[in-house]
Sequence to fold (90 residues):
Amino acid sequence: MPSTPTLALIALGLIVLIAIAIRVIRSLRRFARARTLVGDGLGNGVGLLKARSAALKVAIAERRPREQARTRANPAYDRRSGADRRITNG
Fold:
């Protein structure tokens, strides 16, 4: 019967190992949920910042005189082909 204490210790070790594994898996799930929420919030903030930046560029372009709109001082001016990259409705 000398193997009985060994088997008992092995069984106890497995139970402890399973309990630790369950706690680690739960923690990882919580972390993944939190990471997703933070990523979504950051993505929304970046999208809003891009939209505001685009709106500001449009507002600045609308305030410029027409002859300055097609010069190199305008960031919407395409330096490669000399064309205007702004989207127009007409």
About this structure: Helices lie at 3-63. The first helix runs from residue 3 to 63. Residues 3-70 form one domain. The radius of gyration is 31 Å.
